[in-house]
Design a protein that fits this description.
The structure is a single chain. This protein has about 450 residues and is mostly helical. The protein contains 19 helices and two strands. A two-stranded antiparallel ribbon has the order 1-2. Strand 1 and strand 2 form a beta hairpin. Helix 15 runs antiparallel to helix 16, helix 16 crosses helix 17 and helix 17 crosses helix 18. The chain is elongated and about 85 Å long. It comes from Streptomyces fimbriatus. InterPro entries: Cyclic_di-GMP/3'3'-cGAMP_PDE, HD/PDEase_dom, HD_domain, HD_GYP_dom, HDIG_dom. Its EC number is 3.1.4.-.
Length: about 450
């Protein structure tokens, strides 16, 4: 985003201009300016703390909405919007263009706070806060938070569409509104929590205990955000570990470049279709990504061989699940993904490897990854075979269901692809990997990823 497109620059300019219009009536506003200054300082200080090494938050902006929403519940619209301005303008930005990013951050926050404050006043929220009428205050604050989230979502969705290349059309259908709706739903829950904290600050501010008691609300918020940031830091470390292992496999075997990520995506789709919870879906994505990590222990000449494998070479390649399990069994956060790495070449009829497990003896995670692995192997171009169209690959999986693959996993993949299509985040290696019809053949005639 170092060079903003013309439409994106126009959007930034429009948002900044709208923010300035919201602040035009400031000279005529009767507001406790000391409260505006205090809230502005609190917001800026909390944002600075969130970016410090102590917290190390992975989220670049909007960390402490409770302070801004408390201002929206306490102050007139222009004064509440003004409290967001210093922190938004003075906080550092990580990437170019620096000025445009600062102006964008300030403009969107000013508009969102102004709109929330206006809705709160129009629904009688100021009187409810002043009278400590908690039921009415909850309803009016909820309306304000909803508008606050809606403004931020609309603006963020627009700038993403114009600067980050988020497609407005996908598969011939308009996907923009759906993408914005998903963004709104993801943002609503955390912003609602921040809104409740902001309402608590506002009620305590208007209570006999005064602003000092209101500031105490920030302490548990800081602690909770610190814990949240540590969770994301640990998660980032997990992702880095997996990324390093996958990159090592990709370097060793260029023909499978991107295969691991696609198998992870297909495994995730199957797991979601089966109704697994989000934590398990993530573990199965890890399983799909790391299923071939054992190839690091296989000689490169065997992985890239074009001709048929000798029995001895086949035995060497068939050791890669055990190699992979040895590599990942000490990584505790992988959970059942470790079993999938070891058993993803087992067959339902007991003719697979490395241990010849059959039926329910094969871990469920391994049965999911086996289907995802075979599907991507058939729909990707390799040195020894050309890619098959997705419908052909799905028919082949259905033909082998019950003998090689778990019919439940195959049916889940067929359903989800029939409904959502197959749009892998990582495409095949190059233009040669586009789907090309090929004569049907068993999907397990070569060991490892070479089916």
């Amino acid at each position: 985003m170092e060079a903003l497109p013309v439409r994106a620059r126009a959007l930034v300019a429009g948002v900044v201009l709208a923010g300035l219009l919201c602040l035009l009536s400031l000279p005529g506003v009767r507001a406790p300016w000391w409260a505006v200054a205090l809230l502005a300082a609190l917001y800026g200080g909390c944002e600075r703390l969130a970016r410090s090494r102590l917290v190390g938050t992975p989220h670049p902006g909007g960390t402490f909405y409770p302070v801004l929403l408390a201002g929206a519940f306490l102050l007139p619209e222009p004064a509440a919007a003004l409290a967001a301005l210093p922190g938004a303008l003075l906080m550092p930005v990580a990437r170019r263009p620096y000025l445009a990013r600062r102006l964008w951050r300030a403009g969107r926050l000013v508009l969102a706070v102004w709109a929330a404050s206006r809705v709160h006043r129009m629904t009688g929220g100021r009187d409810a806060v002043a009278d400590c009428d908690v039921p009415l205050a909850l309803g009016t604050a909820g309306a304000a938070v909803l508008v606050f989230c809606l403004v931020l979502t609309l603006l963020d969705g627009a700038v993403l569409a114009l600067t980050a290349g988020v497609p407005l059309r996908r598969g011939g259908r308009r996907a923009g509104p759906a993408a914005w709706w998903r963004l709104f739903l993801r943002s609503l829950a955390p912003i609602t929590v921040h809104g409740l904290a902001g309402l608590m600050m506002a009620l305590l501010w208007r209570s006999p205990y005064g602003p000092v008691a209101a500031l105490l609300v920030l302490l548990p918020m800081c602690v909770s955000w610190w814990a949240f940031a540590q969770y994301h830091r640990e998660r980032a470390a997990h992702q880095a570990t997996i990324r390093a292992l996958v990159q090592a496999v990709d370097i060793k075997d260029g023909y499978t470049r991107g295969h691991s990520e696609r198998v992870g995506q297909a495994s995730m789709m199957i797991a979601r279709e089966l109704g697994m919870d989000d934590e398990r879906v993530e573990v199965l994505r890890f399983a799909g990504i790391l299923h071939d990590v054992g190839k690091l222990g296989v000689p490169t000449r065997l992985l890239t061989k074009d001709g048929p494998l000798t029995p001895e070479e086949r035995r060497v390649i068939e050791l890669h699940p055990e190699y992979g399990h040895e590599m990942v069994r000490g990584i505790s956060f992988l959970g059942e993904a470790r079993a999938a790495v070891l058993h993803h070449h087992e067959r339902l009829d007991g003719t697979g490897y490395p241990y010849g497990l059959a039926g329910s003896q094969i871990p469920e995670s391994a049965r999911v990854v086996a289907v995802a692995d075979a599907f991507d192997a058939m729909t990707s171009t390799r040195s020894y075979s050309r890619a098959r169209p997705v419908p052909v690959a799905l028919k082949e999986l259905q033909r082998c269901a019950g003998s090689h693959f778990d019919p439940r996993m195959v049916a889940a993949l067929v359903r989800v692809i029939g409904r959502a299509g197959w749009h892998p985040a990582v495409t095949a290696d190059d233009a040669r990997a586009r789907a090309v019809p090929a004569p049907a053949a068993p999907v397990t005639d070569r060991p490892g990823a070479r089916r």
